[in-house]
Design goal:
With 198 residues, the chain is mostly helical. It is built from 10 helices and no strands. α1 packs antiparallel against α8 and α5 packs antiparallel against α10. It comes from Roseateles oligotrophus. InterPro entries: LeuE-type. Keywords: Cell membrane, Membrane, Transmembrane, Transmembrane helix. The chain crosses the membrane at residues 41-60, 72-92, 142-167, 179-197.
Length: 198
């Protein structure tokens, strides 16, 4: 039982700590409400769990054996960095309107965007590699699936708490000026994540 508690603690520490996906969940909840934010949360959780499973089932070994590992990691780093800068730009140029008008309805967070984010998120790759190295390095398929199932539940709950926090802030951000300030603060945090990646 202590192995599963350790897995759960690792998943919680990795999932609840601030990062790009968490900040976007917070922003989605604040701008569009909890229901729309949960689309992002679901996609991000499924995307991360898929990445975790693939790494646990041998993707990392396949990459290492191909000889393209360092190039792929460099590409991932720069792709993730570019994506974070793009997201920060989108937040910074927000007009401060809540997700009620037609333009905002079209820009609602999506399931696919959440999943895509995880595959470009270096934090997700590091958590997947470190987690599988710590708990399933033996290659035991059952252990890989158990760890992924535990991680799925905790990742979803963690990201949902960020979306819920954003939705709770929504009533305080009803003025466009306040929401613009909030979005710009999140944009600065995303840029800080990007700088940290360098």
């Amino acid at each position: 039982m202590s192995l599963y508690l350790s897995m759960a603690a690792f998943a919680l520490a990795s999932s609840i700590s601030p990062g790009p996906v968490n900040l976007v969940a917070l922003s989605a909840g604040a701008q569009h409400g909890l229901r729309a934010g949960l689309r992002h949360v679901t996609g991000a959780t499924v995307g991360f769990t898929g990445l975790l499973l693939l790494i646990g089932l041998g993707l990392n070994e396949l990459i290492a054996r191909s000889g393209y590992g360092p190039s792929l990691m460099l590409l991932l780093r720069w792709g993730g960095l570019s994506f974070l800068v793009y997201m920060a730009y989108q937040l910074a140029r927000s007009d401060g309107k809540l997700g009620n008008d037609d333009k905002a309805q079209r820009a609602k967070p999506s399931y696919l965007y959440g999943a895509y984010m995880q595959w470009l998120n270096p934090k997700a790759w590091i958590a997947s590699l470190a987690g599988m190295a710590a708990y399933a390095s033996s290659g035991d398929g059952l252990l890989v699936w158990q760890f992924a199932a535990i991680y799925f539940v905790i990742c979803y709950a963690s990201l949902a708490s960020w979306a819920w926090a954003g939705a709770s802030l929504r009533r305080h951000l009803s003025e466009p000026r306040k929401l613009m300030f909030f979005n710009r603060a999140l944009a600065v945090m995303l840029l800080a994540c990007a700088v940290y990646m360098l």
